[in-house]
Specification:
The chain has one domain. It is 41% helix and 33% strand. It has helices at residues 2-19, 25-59, 66-69, and strands at 72-75, 80-81, 87-96, 103-116, 119-134. Strands 1, 2, 3, 4 and 5 form a five-stranded antiparallel beta sheet that branches. A hairpin with a 2-residue loop joins strand 4 and strand 5 (119-134). It is elongated and about 75 Å long.
């Protein structure tokens, strides 16, 4: 009985694998390139809006972003979108030199993005602080 079951499984597996048609890799690649081009436009526009929004926050002296004002900051170029393209997460990179100029302390803050009623909104999330490193140790 065990041999018959094993033979039946092998036959079913053979039929299933042979019934699959060949994959058109060129079509898959072209679809990937089209999706990639569309995602690049979306990514670039969201990153530009995030940069403009944070600049506005600083110019409007919003208290929660006051620590960014005296430091070097940039929106990271990597951003990940949800499958429906209504939410995204990125990073805000901050290099702090305000307290002691001979030391550098880097912060990485989550930049949360959500599209609500056709408009992108940005929120600051958790922050990871990298310890200060003396500038004199590195050329």
């Amino acid at each position: 009985m065990f041999i018959k079951d094993r033979c039946l499984v092998v036959i079913i597996l053979f039929v299933v694998l042979c019934s699959c048609g060949p994959i058109d890799y060129k079509e898959v690649y072209l679809q990937y390139k089209i999706d990639d081009a569309n995602n690049k436009q979306l990514k670039d526009s969201v990153l530009k809006m995030a940069d403009d929004t944070i600049s506005d926050w600083i110019n409007d002296s919003i208290i929660d972003v006051k620590y960014i004002t005296n430091n070097t900051w940039a929106v990271d170029s990597i951003i990940v979108f949800s499958s429906d393209k209504t939410k995204a997460i990125g990073s805000l990179l901050i290099s702090k030199t305000e307290t002691r100029p001979q030391y550098v302390q880097d912060d990485i803050t989550n930049l949360l993005c959500e599209k609500i009623n056709g408009q992108w909104y940005f929120f600051l999330g958790a922050t990871m602080v990298l310890p200060p490193i003396a500038r004199t140790c590195c050329p």
